[in-house]
């Protein structure tokens, strides 16, 4: 049986600065600086953004690491993958 595909979302929190969020995304999600900046801008202006797609076990670890940094994230099943 194939693992379901999940999406990790970052939510805007008004607590952390732009640079802090960018650094966290680069460190935890292995984003390039351009990817991390784009995600941070989208999150700021739209309230949340999709930051990573993958299997639950991988994304759960990233979610925990981002939460440890104080960021608000959520993990949802990718309903468009089916």
Order of helices and strands: EHHEHE
Largest sheet: 3 strands, antiparallel
CATH topology, anyone? Ribosomal Protein L30, Chain: A
Helix content class: 40-55%
Q: Termini distance?
A: 14 Å
Low-confidence stretches: none
Oligomeric state, counting identical vs distinct chains: single chain
Domain unit count: 1
Protein name: ATP-dependent Clp protease adaptor ClpS
Pfam family, one: ClpS
Keywords: Hydrolase, Protease
InterPro entries: ClpS_core, Ribosomal_bL12_C/ClpS-like
Description:
Keywords: Hydrolase, Protease. InterPro entries: ClpS_core, Ribosomal_bL12_C/ClpS-like. It comes from Ancylomarina euxinus. One of its GO terms (biological process) is proteolysis. One of its GO terms (molecular function) is peptidase activity. With 82 residues, this protein is an alpha+beta fold. The protein has a single domain (5-81), classed as Ribosomal protein L7/L12, C-terminal domain/Adaptor protein ClpS (Ribosomal Protein L30, Chain: A, 2-Layer Sandwich), CATH 3.30.1390. Helix content is 48%, strand content 26%. It contains 3 helices and 3 strands; from the N terminus they run βααβαβ. Strands 2-1-3 form a 3-stranded antiparallel beta sheet. Helix 1 crosses helix 2 (33-46). The chain starts with a strand and ends in a 5-residue tail after the last strand. The mean pLDDT is 93.
């Amino acid at each position: 049986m194939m693992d379901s595909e999940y999406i990790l979302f970052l939510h805007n929190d008004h607590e952390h600065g732009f640079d802090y969020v960018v650094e966290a995304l680069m460190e935890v999600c292995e984003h390039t600086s351009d990817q991390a900046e784009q995600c941070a801008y989208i999150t700021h202006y739209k309230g949340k953004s999709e930051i990573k797609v993958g299997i639950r076990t991988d994304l759960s670890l990233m979610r925990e690491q981002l939460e440890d940094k104080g960021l608000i994230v959520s993990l949802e099943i990718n309903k468009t993958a089916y």
